[in-house]
Amino acid sequence: MNSNNVALSGTAAVSAIAFLCLAGTARAQSGTFIPTGSMSSARVNHTATLLPNGKVLLVGGVASISPPPVVILASAELYDPATGTFTATSSMGTPRVAHTATLLPNGKVLIAGGERGGSYLINPLASAELYDPTTGTFSPTGSMSVSRNDFTATLLPNGKVLVAGGISGGSPVLSSAELYDPATGTFTLTGSMGIDRYEHTATLLPTGAVLVAGGYTFTGGFTTLATAELYDPATGTFRAAGFMTAARACYTATLLPNGTVLVAGGSFAAIGHNATAIASAELYDPATGTFRATGSMSTVRACHTATLLLNGEALVVGGGNDRDLLTSAELYDPGAGAFHATGSTTGQGAGHTATLLANGRVLVAGGWNPSLPNTVLASAELYTPDEIPVSIDIKPGDANNTINLKSNGTILVAILSSASFGATTVDPTTVTLAGAPVATQGRGIPMTSVADLNRDGRLDLLLHFRTQDLQLTPTSKEAVLKGTTFSGQRIRGADSIRIVP
Question: Is CB count within 10 Å lower at the N or C end of the chain?
Answer without folding.
Answer: C
